[in-house]
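lol so apparently i was supposed to do this last week
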Amino acid sequence: MLEPSPTARRAAELRALLHRHAHLYYVLDAPELPDAAYDALFQELQALEEAEPALRTPDSPTQRVLGRVLEGFEPVRHAVPMLSIRTETDTTDAGAQAFDARVRRELGLGPEDAPVEYAVELKFDGLALSLRYEQGVLVRAATRGDGETGEDVTQNIRTICQIPLRLQAPAGAALPAVLEVRGEVYMRRDDFERLNERQRERGDKTFVNPRNAAAGAVRQLDPAIAAQRPLSFFAYGLGEVAGWMVPARHSQVLDALAAFGLPVCADRAVVLGAEGLVAFHQRVAAARDGLPFDIDGVVYKVDRLDLQRQLGFVTREPRWAVAHKYPAQEQMTRLNGIEIQVGRTGKLTPVAKLEPVFVGGTTVSNATLHNVFELRRKGVRVGDTVIVRRAGDVIPEVVGRVPGDRPGYVSNFLMPRQCPVCASEVLREKGAIDHRCSGGLFCAAQRKQALLHFAGRRAMDIEGLGDKLVDQLVDCGLVRTLPELYTLGLAKLSALDRMADKSAANLVAALEHSKHTTLARFIFALGIRHVGEATARDLARHFGSIDRLMDAAEPQLLEVTDVGPVVARSIHTFFAQPHHREIVEQLRACGIRWDEHEGAAQAAPGPLTGKTLVLTGTLPTLSRDEAKALIEAAGGKVAGSVSGKTDAVVAGAEAGSKLEKALSLGVTVLDEAGLRAWLAGEGDGVGVVST
Ligand code: IVH
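anyway here it is w/ 2-(butylsulfanyl)adenosine bound
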């Protein structure tokens, strides 16, 4: 028997590694490697097999679409297999050019022939899903599984409000007998952040990234839990179709799907040739950070379906489509140390000091570890190789460690007993997750953060008062309290390091300018725990004066829209402390002023004054923004969720869980006509249940 060659050994090793990590990733939703590292191993194996085809075993991960049917879900056989597309890993323009060249060659086009038209889309980073509609009714939702057989996840998918349970019939047209829609379930970045925040508060396991959170939710065996995980969906193609004239172009298919009421991403286009592909790739690269969801690339598809048929498939991938990637948003690097950062409310956050690494478009050397419990759960220790994630404008975070040997014994990280900045005692309330410095404004770190918050654009808006300057002002003892900011004159400021006369003069002017503000901004600027901008606005509107707010007892605070017991207690405790009242007095003495009647003026009674409404589903003529604007113009408020304090829910087509909640709580439900009656001041108390 021959010794296996070194390449054969490496191929076998790669297959084993890839099988293990694919199982962790696809089946258990618990990946241990960042995507980029997995892709690199996959490509290494692909390259070995290409060079030496004899190495290609039937069970090689390169030979099949991955995934496995989980126990607990019924298997679903896909009438049309759910295939994947080739990935162009060259993230430069050359990737797009190579695809166009291949397509032209396969179609037998010469240089004199016209450019190919491509439908270009985003590559959503979620989980492939098939939705089967029969006579316009959603009958089944299935995951991809191994491409031939997936899992029946209909119950979970029905909880996604974005997915219509019944298609809309476009004017004059009938609904298809069978329409299988293919698309991606994903989680928006803000929903993901909120979900993880909630998990963290409860001390539950957090999710590594939106895709894993989405995958976990879709395959959650308990639909009630799945329903609490906010999922979204974009349609991008078709599976089985019967009784419908499929349009001639992919872009028209997407238009038709949108007309059926399915969510189709608006960020798509039809472009010409390689140039058009390159331009789209670049445009999306620039916009990527600002998108509300993760993408890992763009997808190019030949637009004409007759040409798609002509091009056909190679093994399991269409020749007419390709995914063109972007640099990864997760990377591996070394954890060099853990430091503690003290926040505005005294919260101690462990911060990872990293070997600088390029991820999500910037070099990252610090990343949050959130709190000591998460740090323990993730099991990261100094010296470990860790996975860092940075997506969009979200603060970079360490999501876990890459298993491997530890060089030697490294002790577990412990929270300090004393604040590393002011040496005050560190406390953790019973049952709370966070450790806090008890130093309050005695602590320089909290003072700095309080000043920065006060000066922020959405608070007092003091232009030019940034973190460097605040550091200096606090460190040299010039500013100890908020009011002391207003005692800074040209002389004191110009004496500071690196402070030009011009900048000093600008800052004095900015301070002066900030004195004329609004009550809402002033309340927000004080930095009361749990009082964000929206609550500050509600408080200003409700009380109309800072004195009335300062004197309010908890039951009065609870009368304010959206103020619950935790917020009421926090506000009351804040103003119960004499030094906080003194700060307010001193700030007023510095000349800070606002229109005391601002609250009352804003609340100029309209037909909906004091009413909170919730919008859900699609209204026949009004867009969501239009409805919101009308409600607010009539003095009402639009809230995001239904509670006992909701006065009415305005429900349109495909209204989901909010409507159910309203019905269960006995909250009035209006349709668009009902809303218009309320806006006209006619309908109070009359509920019109829409179906
Ligand atoms: S088209 C036969 N379009 O990327 C072509 N896929 O391998 C079917 N994906 O897991 C795929 N965004 O779920 C297509 N705009 C898009 C996509 C997209 C994300 C996912 C898809 C699959 C993988 C493709």
